[in-house]
Amino acid sequence: MIMRATTNWAELENKLSRSSDSREQLALLDQLVEYYVFSNARKARKFLRKEKALLDQGDYEYRYYSLTGFIYNQQYDYEKAEQAYLRAISLIEEQGNAYEQMESYLDYAGVCINLKALDRAERQLEKVAQLLRAFPDDKLQARFNCRRGYLALYEGNYSKTAEAMLEADKLLQHREDLTPKDYYFLMLIHSGLGKVYERNNEWRKCVDSYKMVVETSERLRLTTRLSWHYLNLGSACMAINDNEQAELFFQKALEVKSDSSELARASALANIGYLRSQEGDYKAALKLYNKAEKLFRKVNAEDYFNFSILARWRAVIYAELGQPEEALEYLLQAYYHAKEIEDYKQISGIYKDIASLYAEMGDYENAYEYQLLYDRYAERYAEQLNQRKIMELEVKYKAQQKEREAELLRLQATRLQLKALRAQMNPHFMFNALNAIQNCMTSNDLRSAAKYLAKFATLMRKSLEYSNEEIIPLEEEIEFLREYLEINAGLRFENRLKYYIEVSDELEEDILGVPTMIVQPYVENAIEHGLRSRDKGEIRISFQAADEENILCTVTDNGIGRAHALRIQQSDPLHGQHKSRGTSITEKRLQVFHNSTDGVFVKTIDLIDPKTKRAAGTRVELIIPTRSIHKQGVI
Question: Is residue 617 within 8 Å of residue 530, measured between CB atoms?
Fold first, then answer.
């Protein structure tokens, strides 16, 4: 659903008020909520309540929870946002398409980043990366790169952040089909770039990035995070000594009604107070500091970082006013706050201020003692900074190692798929099938020849087509097995082979995806090693649910058993060449699809006749991972 930023939302509201069709109402409500979550939280909640009342009229339930999660996230209530997204994802995995699922994973990843649950965010992005390989989409790729960039930002990898954000920006710039949500991500991208420039002290570039965010937000009236955007831009302006512009944006941050962030307002008040103190208006500055502290305490009663900064700024004012005792009192308050969070940078700066204050008071003994404390804590801060850099390097190393491992797994999966293709349909099956078709033709049984030649051609075509697919619907896997067994039964075994395929009613064959041609190697193995030397053979294949994410496939034959088959192979070198490479490759494929190199996903059981105690065949049990499939593709 494309929603241009220039949509007339008032017209949509009027259309909604006139509509009596519940399906049309749901569609209109969905569009309105998706816009107002960025501009007017009150209206968004109002329309969302109406949408909820109509949910029994359609399939918008997952959209309701997804938009609810987005509203909570915009209002900084990340725990509730997470609950809503988990509900949305559970629904979308049942009934959504690839695009919708990627969108939900990306939104939830953002919530996880806000919660600092970076491992959870990483898992969501891994799912998106896998889907994007199968269903590329530039706009979703841009959102994916944006989320990747913020993960790198938290890890302190600023070069990787910048690279991801610039790639994301390139994918979205100059497009004419951007929705409000696309513009929201575009603002996130440039906010992320602003943070990178900020960390690298490139303040001019930082101002340009934050200005682009503010201008986009104002132009499109996407204002639910506008207080923060003004605050960031104001801080960057202050860093380049453009105090007039800085104060203008801080004032704007206070005036935004659609952004509910008290933290942004508290920071804006504190910064305006600092500008007043720079101008010498100490009374106004102190008043603003008091207001800011009340808001900081309202948001978080243990915000020791900001409490320490405010106390230190008050101390500067009292020192300028010639009241050293009051200044010293606030510096000690700043110290105790900084000590709570072991902020050695702040502590060392406070000790330096105290040393300077004592020196101005003529108390050189105390000035010397605090100068020594400053030196000691400056050294501790340097150690802390060094330790932080080491930790950042460790995080970067682990992230890069994880990326390399994931890439190796992808390459391994590709190689295995190609090997599996070469191992499928061993040449003896193809030779025997074609030879049998030729025999039908020479014996003038043209009907059978035509029938099996068509089946054989279909089987070969599907085998080649599936070589390009990682996942196919279960029903297609079953149909492939059915055709393979039909050719074996009719041609190679001359109807001496019976086969049965059973599928549990609880499995939805058309929307459950399985790895391509994952069962055929075991069926081939049963035929070649268990049944080839039998007068009459039987194979039973069954599919049933193992758990929510896997199915159990059982391949059972009434063949000669593994021990007897091994003796035949040892005594007949030619028969030994029939050994299927497909089964060993398939076991490795299953490990890749399960993301586990040490799990056991294939179990082979020797069947024994209880009366004769002789081999009665073999049963192979496979645990096959599944993915949901919708008409639009894998999700």
Answer: yes
Distance of alpha carbon 122 from alpha carbon 124, whole angstroms: 5
**Roughly how many angstroms between the first and final C-alpha of the chain, as a whole number?**
18
DSSP state of 560: S
Q: Which structure tokens are listed for 365?
A: 């003994």
CA-closest candidate to residue 65, choices 76, 75, 55 = 55
What type of residue is 19? S
Rounded Cα distance, 252 and 263, in Å: 14
> For position 363, what pLDDT does the model report?
92
Q: Which long-range contacts (CB under 8 A, 24 or more apart) does 588-595 make?
A: 588/412, 588/416, 589/413, 589/416, 589/417, 589/420, 589/515, 589/518, 590/515, 590/518, 590/622, 590/623, 590/624, 590/625, 592/409, 592/412, 592/413, 592/416, 593/413, 593/515, 593/625, 594/623, 594/625, 595/409
Class of residue 589 by CB neighbours under 10 A (exposed 0-12, middle 13-18, buried 19+): buried
Residues 221/183, Cβ–Cβ less than 8 Å: no
Q: What is the pLDDT averaged over residues 584-608?
A: 78
Task: State whether residue 236 is helix, strand or coil.
Answer: helix
**pLDDT level of residue 264 (50, 70, 90 thresholds):** very high
- Give the helix, strand, coil percentages of the chain, each rounded to 5: 70, 10, 20
Q: How, if at all, do strands 537-545 and 497-503 pair?
A: parallel
- The rounded distance, in Å, linking the Cα atoms of 10 and 113 is 34
Query: Residue 322's Cα: distance from chain center in Å?
Result: 56
DSSP code, position 225: T
Q: pLDDT grade, residue 278 (50/70/90)?
A: very high
Q: Given this model, what pLDDT does residue 301 score? A: 93
Backbone φ, ψ for residue 633 (5° rounding) = 140, -170
Q: What single DSSP character describes residue 437? A: H
Query: Could you tell me which residues are beta bridge partners of residue 553?
Result: 543, 622
Token pair 């990787």 in the structure block, residue: 160
Domains and CATH numbers, the chain: 424-634 (3.30.565.10)
- For 312-460, strand residue ranges (E) read none
Per-residue pLDDT reduced to its tens digit, 453-505: 888 888 888 877 776 677 889 999 999 999 888 888 887 777 788 999 999 98
DSSP state of 415: H
Find the range with the poorest average confidence among 424-438, 462-476, 539-553, 586-600: 424-438
pTM over 0.85: no
How many Cα atoms within 13 Å fall on the side-chain side of residue 613?
Answer: 0
DSSP secondary structure letters along 480-525: HHHHHHHHIIIIISTT-EEEEEEE-TT--TTTEEEETT-SHHHHHH
Inform me whether the pLDDT recorded for 583 exceeds 90. no
Number of Cβ atoms within 10 Å of the Cβ of 100: 20
pLDDT tens figures, 223-241: 889 999 999 999 999 999 9
State what percent of residues in the chain have pLDDT above 70.
Answer: 87
